[in-house]
Design brief:
Elements lengths: L1 E2 L3 H15 L6 E4 L5 H8 L5 E4 L1 H10 L11 E2 L1
Parallel strand pairs: 1-3, 1-4, 2-3
Amino acid sequence: MILIPSRELADQITKVLKSFLHKIDLRYSLILGGHDYTGQFETLSLNPDIIIATPGRLMQLLTETDLKLSRVQMIVFD
């Protein structure tokens, strides 16, 4: 999980990550405010290898769903 303070920075990191992931079999999910959350929550059901999230939307996700973060092995705070 990569926890990012702003949507703009999350978008930038996602673009760079995409350029690496097209050669590797890893999936990601981008979870951030200011965008439709339904599609974002659906990407989590695909069990992504990497979650890129802003704190506000992540807290919303944790309170509104039964998402468990017990399988998260590493958190990167940027």
